[in-house]
Design a protein that fits this description.
The chain has about 160 residues and is α+β, with helices and mostly antiparallel strands. About 40% of the residues lie in helices and about 30% in strands. Strands 1, 2, 3, 4, 5 and 6 form a 6-stranded antiparallel beta sheet that branches.
Length: about 160
């Protein structure tokens, strides 16, 4: 059960550029496929090696990504309005990183694989919107990673130093 109303979820999607082309009525339909989950600070949400059986939209708090054998070394974060778990969910390959709730915890709406499979058949337009959102999310991740790698190259090789 979701604590948000369909109008609140619609506004959340519009504010955070998630599935923006969905109407209020379509967001209401989507709600039947979603579950709300919460994790306390530091709790592991997904571990390295897990295969994704759900994806989620962060609605409160943030998550941190770490290498499994270096839990104190945060390599990335995702905050409110971002999609999580989409890469392993769609490619069904093991996760490379551990995902944990930040110190204050995290709350998100999840779509499980069985519910996504139903959504594809029962509401294909909504399923396509979620897939497009996942593609945009992965694009942001890859572009951000590319910028980080470029900055690291400049640092290591001393480009631009005088």
């Amino acid at each position: 059960m979701i604590s948000m109303s369909d109008k609140e979820l619609f506004n959340f999607f519009q504010t955070n550029s998630i599935c923006e082309s969905l109407t209020l009525q379509e967001v209401g339909k989507l709600m039947a496929y979603l579950q709300e989950k919460s994790h306390e600070g530091g709790e592991i949400i997904f571990d390295a090696g897990d295969i994704g059986e759900l994806l989620g939209f962060i609605i409160k708090g943030k998550v941190e990504f770490t290498v499994a054998d270096e839990p104190d070394n945060t390599v990335g974060k995702q905050t409110v309005g971002n999609l999580i778990g989409e890469m392993s969910f769609f490619d069904r390959k093991p996760r490379n990183l551990r995902m944990s709730a930040s110190k204050k915890g995290v709350q998100f709406l999840v779509l499980t694989r069985p519910m996504y499979d139903r959504l594809k058949v029962e509401e294909p337009y909504i399923a396509v919107n979620i897939l497009e959102n996942a593609i945009v999310s992965l694009d942001h991740l890859v572009r951000h990673m590319g910028n980080d790698i470029s900055a690291l190259g400049h640092y290591v090789h001393g480009y631009g130093k005088r």
